[in-house]
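Lab notes, practical 5.
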Amino acid sequence: MQPTAIITYVLIIINVIVSIKGFKESSFLDQYSFRVDEVLVKKQYYRMVTAGFLHVGWMHLILNMIVLYLFSISVEAYMGSLPFVVVYFAGLIGGNLLALFIHRMHGDYSAVGASGAVCGIIFASIALFPGLHVGMLLLPLRVPGWLFGLLYIAYSIYGIRSQIDNIGHEAHLGGALVGMYTAIAFHPHAVLSNFVTIAVITGPAILFIYVIVTRPHVLFVDNFYFKQHHNATLDDRYNLAKRIEQNEVDVILEKIHQKGINSLSKVEKDKLDNYSRGR
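Output from the prediction step:
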């Protein structure tokens, strides 16, 4: 094990342990995944971070960890452990923030995965290492970093715009940009030594983000996976969430009345405890 890459290994181990627990316990996955209403309505901001250590299955986990390993070794060795950690979590949170903004009116939207953080590390390496060529998994093909970055940004924009699949393109785009510019903040000389690559990546991404901020109606968000969103206001969704929560608590209290408190499951006890604490 390389001493300069210790944080990379630690992050991979944490991702594997947390994800396996999520595979085994659906309640754990539900409690810590990224969910728009839980973040905006219930103020459970911790989900912006914890969701990044959960995955929906082994293939999702393994792919993210392989890519993380391949890019993180050199980035951590070059930047040092602390800056590397900052870039990782900046990409993770930045990706979820963009997803939260784009889906702020879609309370049922949820996501998990380390992809935002991983994209942050990938694009940090593209910015920091001029002349970098990026290989494609399982394919004997390597392309210049600037071309990979441009194609990936274009693909992410297309994915957000069309929503043709169940991939969190918003987290990928947000994570890539935030991770890249966090790395540049630690090594500003990268702007001079790798200006063309950074500009080629930044241009279309910033333009797209400007468009979705100023003209959100251009997005087609409804799709096979997330259909029939209702653009309720935050107050509407808060009131609805409180009514649903109250109904759930009423059912639990009635169960206690009928069968006693020992009849409650752990999930029901936790729900009652959280309600009593106002969480």
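Observations recorded by the TA: Residues 234-259 form the longest helix (26 residues). Confidence is low (pLDDT under 50) at residues 220-230.
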